[in-house]
Amino acid sequence: MVKKAIKSLQVGGKEMRTGTLKQILLITDGCSNQGEDPASIARIIAEQGITVNVIGILEETQTEESQGLNEVEEIASNGQGVSQIVYKQALSQTVQAVTKQAMNETLQGVVNKELQQILGNTRSMDELPPEQRGEVMEVVDELGETCDLEVLVLVDTSASMTNKLPTVQEALIDLSISMNARIGRSRFSIYQFPGRRKPIHQLVDWTSKLESISSIFAKISTGGVTPTGPALKEAMHQFGKKSLKRRLFHNEYTDVEEA
């Protein structure tokens, strides 16, 4: 009964199987030093149904308590996402793991809310009998494979990230391969910050594959301040612009058909 009911889960007003999970993946190595507080912006983004995940990259001489990396956990916590601090050698596996973990935690959160409605009390998935809990986790795993996923990758390209960008590039190519092995549709976009005249600059528009990323990363120039808060705010707006473009294209196409 529980498993059957859970399969009708909805997210964003749509059945989960046809809904889309949205994530921002922030890759950075230091503390923001310009603009709004990034943790506060992350909370606003989470309220829009977009999870904010953060990966902090350490230098060989740094420790996890280094100044600036404490901000990583705070941003992810406010953004209802996952945070991880790693040395650059482990970045590739970490990017994949963080993206998948955030997806599963989002799905489990939706499942818990649905369970409370189904069972008519405050019971959560952890309080179910083992057999029913196992059934629910099967559904979560299945949804993780079949739901659509959109990930906007936000890469810190301030001066201190110069020697880390080749590793970031490799990690994102690996992420593309692993996410496209899913049944559900996966789409990516990549932005750097700071931009030339704006907080962020688009490197890759929404796409399902990242084959062209090598040539794009070769042209990136690093330097400048680290406006993490303004960059996150602009990243949030890119999801809305994508939907707006689709609507405009659809309306334009419809007008042509009618004409």
TrEMBL record:
Residues 1-107, 150-259 form the VWFA domain. It comes from Gracilibacillus marinus. SUPFAM superfamilies: vWA-like. This is VWA domain-containing protein. PROSITE patterns: VWFA (PS50234).
